[in-house]
């Protein structure tokens, strides 16, 4: 098998796939997928893509203003302008690739409203937009003869080599070294460092660990977003998300007494940004002495709800709740990462030749809190820019790529059980919606011990080891900022 490539992309979510599609067709591309291609945070995105599509009622400055307000005005203004300005052309490209956004009775694109937005600007495919985008991007990539896709290929180690980067990849029980002049990390989120998350099973922060260990700058990793309306089922670690679009269509938030309570916290009520709503729920829980909260949209037309939210409707039925009739139990849980591998407006990290895009990156567009449905937009815009930048660099003369093998993958001891569980408990207790500084300081000391134990022990290079090491690294970087 050909082991040398021009560009290696790690991750097959929207950012990774879109980067592959925007690299020139004469560029040799390797796309590594940790497990199956649809197992990623992008495919779980329900709400949609925010874009200034209706220029009669919306404009770029309004979108920028809404994003600034949600982000506490800590956003990177240059990146934000690029996001909003370039966004509509990326959305149109998705439509050219066959993405089927919902339309109204007149055939016009249906734009919905979500928390923090002052205009209807969310393009969506029912309530499973991310999955629709993923499927169409996968189909498009499969047609590219210059792109080699390897599903079930887990990157266990990465390092810089003369002229590029090398990855030690475990696939089908065997290790193979792949080399490339350029690398784009698109490894998604970090949700698995928490006890409860909306993230997929692969969201363990591997790419952030690789970048950090190679010397790239990591920024604002403590900026973690908690979604206020995850389905409150504490029997599973992966929490089913009740999309923000449900509140956008008129759902009420109720406390344990069945009272609407958001008027006590924000004049935007249920449509306040996510961090505001999450903090309101936590404060309300302290006032009422209860963690029982509900989302109620039973006052809306049942047939409209079934058509607008078919996936949510069906998933709730499996849990014994009818969206059209019942109050749905909800509570905040970990959802998104605003910090990450620091990049410029072309997706370049502080390490030459290394790029990052999507949730694992820090572009600064979100500030302190992400505005709903800006995440898929960010993945598309900045992965495209990274691909364009690499295209330009591949035109000139480049230093020769000098592959270097990794050391032998010794058997080693299996990693002891319980470390990942302990990491999750520390993070859930110390760095949830309202930070606990004392708990963070105590937790940081223990995380340092766990990280050292994992890194200095003689353990077998297994998927469990790699993910545990990533979780410990990410937890260390987060608590280091706040402890």
Folded structure, characterized:
The protein contains 14 helices and 17 strands. By secondary structure, it is of the alpha/beta class. The strands form four sheets. Strands 1, 2, 6, 7, 8, 9 and 16 form a seven-stranded mixed beta sheet that branches. Strands 11-14-13-12 form a four-stranded antiparallel beta sheet, with helices on one face. A three-stranded antiparallel beta sheet has the order 3-5-4. Helix 3 crosses helix 4, helix 4 (about 75-95) packs across helix 11 (about 375-395) and helix 13 runs antiparallel to helix 14. It is globular and about 65 Å long. The N and C termini lie far apart (about 45 Å). The mean pLDDT is about 95.
Strand count: 17
Q: What share of the residues does DSSP label as strand, in percent? A: 15-25%
pLDDT < 50 runs, ≥5 residues: none
Straight-line distance between termini: 47 Å
Shape: globular
Q: What share of residues is helical?
A: 25-40%
Coarse structural class: alpha/beta
Round the mean pLDDT to the nearest integer and report it.
Answer: 93
The biggest beta sheet reads:
7 strands, mixed
How big is the Rg? 22 Å
